[in-house]
Amino acid sequence: MRTLAFASAALTGAALFFSCSASAFESRHWDCGQDHFFRGDDVEVTINDGCITFTDEESCESVQITDECKLVVNERIVHLDRHQQRLVETYHSRFSNLTEDAIELAKDAVKIGLDGAKLGAFAVLGVLKLLSPDYDSDDLEVDLSIKGNKIERKAERLERRGERLEKRAESLECLHRELRSSIRELDELEWF
Q1: Mean pLDDT of 169-178
Q2: What b-and-e string marks burial along 169-183, b requiring 16 or more CB atoms within 10 Å of the CB?
Q3: 120 pLDDT exceeds 90?
Q4: Are 30 and 181 in contact (CB under 8 A)?
Q5: 49 Rama class: left (phi>0) / alpha (psi -120 to 50) / beta
Q6: d(CA 31, CA 97)
Q7: pTM
Q8: Distance of alpha carbon 17 from alpha carbon 32, whole angstroms
């Protein structure tokens, strides 16, 4: 049952963390709310065609990293030195990869949740099979245990992936602070 609880928690977490739009796999949108990544409370992130846009809802200011890794702050291109450009490129790459991996993790969590639901349906059918003289509660227990163990192993692998993803997110948060402190136009934004 730990598996079902984990799958349910993963689904809930994925749904809360990734409040994606209907076209979630072409264009992505998140309301970061009380995220520790940003100094502001109302930052939304949109990824569309490789372009990452951060928008502060309160001030209507925005930061954009284009698919070509150009930095645009409030619709003005920021001229960067080599070090700053490498930071922007690294940030864009890591942010994009982390986002893709988080979405894949959420998809896999949904699959595990569906496997758990199937297990529940199988248990209901198993109760009906108990009416047969050739099938008893021990048979049902063995069948449920086998299927449950498979789901639990999947959930454990998913949990390990989630832990690795969390470490990468922490590393990205450090890079975010470095990016902000290295580029005056970003550091001047109260919310970024």
Answers
A1: 94
A2: beebeeebeebbeeb
A3: yes
A4: no
A5: left
A6: 19
A7: 0.73
A8: 8
Residues facing 76 on adjacent strands = 73
Tokens at 68, concatenated: 């070509």
Give residues with Cβ within 8 angstroms of 117, minimum separation 6.
Answer: none
φ, ψ of residue 100 in degrees (nearest 5): -60, -45
**Cα separation, 117 vs 32, whole angstroms:** 30
What letter would DSSP give residue 59?
T
Give Cβ neighbours of residue 16 (< 8 Å, ≥ 6 apart): none
Residue 41 reports pLDDT greater than 70: yes
pLDDT above 50 (res 83): yes
Which tokens is 189 given? 């934004």
User: What is the C-alpha separation between 189 and 186, in angstroms, rounded?
Assistant: 5
Q: Compare 39 and 81 and report the one with higher pLDDT.
A: 81
